[in-house]
Write a sequence for this structure.
């Protein structure tokens, strides 16, 4: 095994290429037995097209001689190599980034994690959404891997054939709405390769037929249905059978009923509720109090800009908070829900979702309710009481109203009104 080397200023276009990494001049590559000298020459008159050849030389001096001969051959044929027996090892490529489909997904994952070299290109999305996008890309890779080796199959080689095969696969695995999300996700992956990685190619997913999604009504949960879920926490069989080999999981926790009520009475998203603290509670006076929590989703969209959402503390919500320890915990920095939790935030959110689905089924409710439906139910009833002022409480407006806990007078009156008038299921 001979380690190839290049001087500080090598001959123009001469690289060390690894056949396993499928990459030139990779400083981290240790596949010395798979490395060869390779030369690349730009095709005159083209934008990014180049001609490359893997060389037989095992030392730099011989590689330079081969590179010069190759360049002369290209000039003699005006860079037209088709049909030339001497040009069997010549490959037409493009300058700039070029990856195998597997490597490209790795780069995309880094990009979605915010690991971009350019500040203006750093993504700020939720871990769940990132995982969803990468999951679609991995399914696409798995689909290609049936007939091709994804570690060497280049992204520029993806054709209508691969798109068609994946389209048919997705049709058989997803409903219309998720199908459209899946296809859009992979399309976005190729847009990243073109726009960020600057790979000179057309997006193979630029044209496909979307599935028609039939509009559905906003499903709000009724009082009877919600009460039956709470009863199921006490009475239904708590053990969930998982998809593994006989694996089971106990879904019961003593705080679950309080958690579901907290979702219903605040309209919070999971990521907001699990980090809610007692110190997020403020008061106008002894009778009217409210919470101010970070609207994490909106902050993410606005790239970290602080956006807060007011939650009027109604009589129902205050009674729940007292039950959960308000009198002892008020103004402390403890989490409101399960302060002694052992799970990380993502695991805790996932458990709350799965447990609600488990007990919803245990209650015999066939509708596909999830924690999202508790948020929809909350804002449906808020809108009934508040009308157009609902947007202040949902923070879907662009108002920046909190400066050192100072409230705009109009917003203050809206929150007071909400605390007095919002009632769920009434």
């Amino acid at each position: 095994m001979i380690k190839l080397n290049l001087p500080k200023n090598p001959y123009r276009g001469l690289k060390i290429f690894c056949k396993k990494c499928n990459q030139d001049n990779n400083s981290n590559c240790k596949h010395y037995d798979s490395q060869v000298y390779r030369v690349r020459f730009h095709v005159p008159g083209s934008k990014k097209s180049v001609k490359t050849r893997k060389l037989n030389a095992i030392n730099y001096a011989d590689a330079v001689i081969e590179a010069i001969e190759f360049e002369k051959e290209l000039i003699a044929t005006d860079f037209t190599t088709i049909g030339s027996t001497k040009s069997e090892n010549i490959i037409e490529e493009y300058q700039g980034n070029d990856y195998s489909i597997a490597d490209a997904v790795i780069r995309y994952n880094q990009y979605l994690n915010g690991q971009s070299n350019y500040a203006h290109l750093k993504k700020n999305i939720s871990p769940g959404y990132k995982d969803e996008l990468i999951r679609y890309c991995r399914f696409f890779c798995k689909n290609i891997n049936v007939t091709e080796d994804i570690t060497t199959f280049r992204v520029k080689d993806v054709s209508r054939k691969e798109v068609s095969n994946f389209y048919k696969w997705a049709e058989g695995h997803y409903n219309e709405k998720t199908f459209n999300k899946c296809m859009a996700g992979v399309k976005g992956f190729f847009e990243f390769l073109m726009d960020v990685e600057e790979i000179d190619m057309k997006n193979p997913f630029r044209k496909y037929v979307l599935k028609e999604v039939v509009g559905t009504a906003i499903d709000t949960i009724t009082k009877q249905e919600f009460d039956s879920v709470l009863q199921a926490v006490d009475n239904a069989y708590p053990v969930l059978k998982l998809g593994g080999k006989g694996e089971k999981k106990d879904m019961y926790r003593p705080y679950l009923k309080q958690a579901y009520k907290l979702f219903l009475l605040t309209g919070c998203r999971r990521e907001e509720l699990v980090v809610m603290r007692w110190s997020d509670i403020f008061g106008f006076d002894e009778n009217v109090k409210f919470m101010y929590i970070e609207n994490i989703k909106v902050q993410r969209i606005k790239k970290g800009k602080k956006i807060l959402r007011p939650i009027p503390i109604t009589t129902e919500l205050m009674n729940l908070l007292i039950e959960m320890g308000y009198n002892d915990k008020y103004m402390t920095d403890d989490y409101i829900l399960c302060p002694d939790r052992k799970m990380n935030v993502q695991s805790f959110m996932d458990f709350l979702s799965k447990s609600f689905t488990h007990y919803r089924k245990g209650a015999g409710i066939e509708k596909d309710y999830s924690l999202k439906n508790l948020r929809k139910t909350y804002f449906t009833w808020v809108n009934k009481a508040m009308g157009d002022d609902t947007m202040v409480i949902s923070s879907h407006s662009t108002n920046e109203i909190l400066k050192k806990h100072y409230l705009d007078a109009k917003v203050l009156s809206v929150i007071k009104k909400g605390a007095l008038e919002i009632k769920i299921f009434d």
Remarks:
- The radius of gyration is 30 Å.
- The chain has a mean pLDDT of 82.
